[in-house]
């Protein structure tokens, strides 16, 4: 629509040509709104593509990670432990793909065991071909949590999966997170204005929110 000036649009092609100035004004308003909506969608897709490309470069991935899954654990003093899995596809959150796991049979407060149980339940289905594998997995936790994740992937024959542990920074301040990237010896800390880092924060925060909502319920 944005390529066509409004005055060049053949109104006879519309469902019903305007019969007076008021109807013409309404039609022009509808066309302008549609044009703005299309431009906003294109801008959003461009922004998402830029963030995915930046993340690909920062993590040295072969391709932009189209499907990203993120896990978080929530409990109160070890009680009512819930694990969340949120999904981001092509830079957008896909709530229909979210999953929660009620964690049972572990020592209260053992976040490592909770993460192991959630990851095993999720990726057993990937290992058997029942569901699609993600391009990147985010683990909300530090080096220890990420180590547990890599153990699970190895046990399931999925050691090829890319993953990072997202550790909260000093005093848990946003922007100070440290990334433990599989295959790298040293942790990575991206600039606070890094586009890929913003995407990681957004997905991690959504996983945290979804886990807390499930725990409270």
| Average pLDDT for all residues | 85
Q: What is the percent of helical residues?
A: 40-55%
Strand-residue proportion:
15-25%
- Succession of helices and strands: HEEEEHEHEEH
**Global geometry:** elongated
Oligomer: single chain
User: Pairing-aware structural class of the strands and helices?
Assistant: alpha/beta
Number of helices: 4
In whole angstroms, the N-to-C terminal distance is 46 Å
Give unreliable regions as ranges: none
Major beta-sheet overview: 7 strands, mixed
By DSSP, the count of extended strands is: 7
Rounded to the nearest angstrom, the radius of gyration is 23 Å
Your description of this structure?
With 217 residues, this protein is of the alpha/beta class. Helices cover 42% and strands 19% of the residues. The chain has helices at residues 21-59, 111-127, 143-155, 195-216; strands at 67-76, 79-89, 92-93, 99-102, 136-140, 163-167, 178-181. Strands 1, 2, 3, 4, 5, 6 and 7 form a seven-stranded mixed β-sheet that branches. Strand 5, helix 3 (143-155) and strand 6 (163-167) form a beta-alpha-beta unit. The longest helix is centred in the N-terminal third of the chain and has 39 residues, at 21-59. The protein is elongated and about 75 Å long.
Write the layout of secondary structure elements.
Layout: H1 21-59, E1 67-76, E2 79-89, E3 92-93, E4 99-102, H2 111-127, E5 136-140, H3 143-155, E6 163-167, E7 178-181, H4 195-216
Parallel strand pairs: 1-5, 5-6
Antiparallel strand pairs: 1-2, 2-3, 2-4, 6-7
């Amino acid at each position: 629509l944005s390529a066509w000036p409004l005055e060049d649009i053949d109104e006879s092609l519309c469902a019903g040509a305007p019969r007076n100035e008021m109807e013409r004004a309404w039609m022009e308003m509808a066309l302008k709104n549609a044009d703005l909506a299309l431009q906003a969608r294109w801008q959003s897709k461009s922004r998402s593509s830029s963030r995915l490309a930046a993340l690909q470069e920062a993590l040295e991935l072969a391709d932009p990670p189209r499907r990203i899954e993120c896990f978080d654990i929530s409990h109160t003093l070890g009680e009512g432990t819930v694990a969340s899995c949120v999904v981001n596809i092509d830079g957008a959150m896909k709530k229909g793909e979210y999953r929660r796991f009620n964690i049972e049979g572990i020592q209260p407060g053992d976040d490592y065991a909770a993460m192991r149980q959630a990851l095993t339940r999720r990726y057993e289905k990937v290992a058997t071909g029942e569901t699609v594998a993600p391009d990147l997995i985010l683990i909300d936790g530090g080096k220890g949590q990420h180590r547990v994740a890599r153990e699970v992937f190895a046990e399931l024959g999925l050691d090829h999966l890319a993953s990072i542990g997202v550790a909260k920074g000093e005093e848990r301040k946003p922007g100070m997170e440290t990334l433990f990237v599989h295959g790298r010896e040293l942790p990575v800390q991206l600039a606070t204005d890094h586009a890929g880092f913003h995407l990681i924060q957004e997905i991690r925060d959504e996983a945290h929110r979804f886990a807390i909502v499930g725990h409270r319920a």
